[in-house]
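Q: Give me a backbone?
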Amino acid sequence: FLPTVKNFRRKKIAKEVRAILEDMVQKREKAIKSGATNYHDLLGLLLESNNTNDNKSKMTLDDVIEECKLFYFAGHETTSMLLTWTMVVLSTHPTWQQRAREEVMQIMGSTTDPPTLDQVAHLKIVTMILYEVLRLYPPVVFLIRQTYKRVTLGGLDFPAGVRLLLPILMIHHDREIWGDDADEFRPERFLEGVSKAAKHPLAFFPFGWGPRICIGQNFALIEAKMALAMILQHFSFHLSPSYTHAPYAQLTIHPQFGAPIILEKL
């Protein structure tokens, strides 16, 4: 720990977040014991795992707090960045913005009610756009996986316990996989679905893949489709002249200088 201004601020914020979550957990535990509430939400399900005789499956207070922090980050930060980059991209591709709006208006009309799940399921163009944005600006730049048994990959033999880094951003922009237009916004590449969008059926994995795929994948996509549909339904938008395109990769990809977008009510 270096005593810099940023590190002191991070430490202070971490303490405040922990104190808030610890208080929430303790209050919920008391409410559950008194019968005033149940396990029908995320925090309740996490606490329910402790009502077992198997000590190996029980979660400590630290475990519960870390899971709550993870779900907040995964459910808020990544989805907000997906919507931010989608609006940036559609601002620079007005034809696709209009195609998406026409689809939304055809399916949803001019109602002020939120879209239903059935309506969301029929938003094909919106889905293609979101997939392409996820490819260009994946919510997580890389993933780390650890081998649990000996495995051979690409002619190399890895024993159990080796940590492998999966560079999602690099693979999503690989011209050998996606073609010479790998850096271009072309939603039509997903016209026949994810598996046929690239030369390899598993080349698109913004949420990971396999048994440890992001459990919030479907929810995040539904949330993004609903939000984007409601924006397209009521607004047109374009980039402010002050916008500077500078994707900045940390764990997620941020617009380094923000994304000032001008909305006009339809």
